[in-house]
Amino acid sequence: MSDVLQSRPARQVMAISPVRRPRRAGPRHALHRATWLCGGCGDPWPCTLRRTELLAKYRDNPGELHRMMDFYAQLAATSAPDANLAAALQSQIADWVPQRTATQPDCGHVARIL
Ligand SMILES: [Zn+2]
Q1: Which pTM does this prediction carry?
Q2: What is the dihedral of CA 75, 79, 81, 83, to 10 degrees?
Q3: 20 against 72, higher pLDDT
Q4: Ligand 1 mean position to 100 CA, how many Å?
Q5: Which protein residues have a CB closer than 5 Å to ligand 1 (ion)?
């Protein structure tokens, strides 16, 4: 340890030492429900990165992705103070999902991943 560190009180030494923080569980670009923005980058949720992650995760079950995003869109709309914001939030949250086709399966339940 250098002479500079040895001459400082312990609290100051800890403040300049590298700190290892535990990794957060869950996705980094998760929904911040108070604002309906991405908690990771601040863009409208789901942000571009989160959309990419969701499309990859639900590649084999797009019907479930539709139901989940419809659920969040309805939740956002009911929390909006006026109809214009409600419509904007519904569009932001649900309209980016690719349209379903007749051949895609529908498993009938919604996953909690957000
Ligand atoms: Zn983000």
Answers
A1: 0.65
A2: 10
A3: 72
A4: 25
A5: 29, 38, 40-41, 47
Rounded Cα–Cα distance for residues 107 and 75 (Å): 21
| pLDDT confidence band for 78 (50 / 70 / 90) | very high
Residue given tokens 């942000």 in the structure block: 47
What's the confidence (pLDDT) of residue 32? 95
Q: How far is CA 24 from CA 56, 60, 87, in A?
A: 21, 27, 33
- pLDDT confidence of residue 100: 66
